[in-house]
Amino acid sequence: MINPEFFLITTLVGFFAMMNPAGNLRVFVKLVEARQPYNIKQIALKAVMFSFIIITLATLFGNYIFQFLFLPVHAFRIVGGILITMAGFQLLNGKIASFHAPLSIKRKNQSDNRIALSPIAIPMLSGPGTILLAINFSAINQDELHILMILVGSALNCIFCYVVFISAQKIQDKIGEDAINVISRLMGLIVAIMGVQILIMGITEIVKNLQV
User: Fold this and answer.
1) What is the mean pLDDT of the chain?
2) Which of 41, 120, 123, 197 is deepest in the core (most CB within 10 A)?
């Protein structure tokens, strides 16, 4: 049995690193630069709400989808581990993970709801990497307490992202680009380590199955 308090800390750190509010801060500023403060707050709120819903659905139903398709968890962990590790290395190189990067930031003429959903909620906050992480967390232990820890961890990160986004311009002006880059690269290191750990778990399960 995994210690619930330790598991909560793991989910908090994992989601924080993958959602990477520091790295996404600059993109958010560009997306909302022509909007009024009230609209910026509404976009940030809707984005984190959409993101939390997506992560919740992945946590609650992701494993059932794989079971329905007869896909083994260890194979999913290997693929997820590889993708999450790749995302970590991209962050370490000062880039947003490719599958979390918006295709375009030229969204000035689109509605607040559309921008909040895409590209901010998807793929910036709850893209493939975050979804894979949520499903992997839920696969580790599926009892109600640990599922609750995952949802609490994601909710707290969504709240933090909201606070960062509504203060994005002030934060960017105060701490500067260099500090943001350092934080983003540190998040990349954490993401890469978690990806490798998930990959090792998948390989370990395959080896155990071969020995049976």
Assistant:
1) 88
2) 120
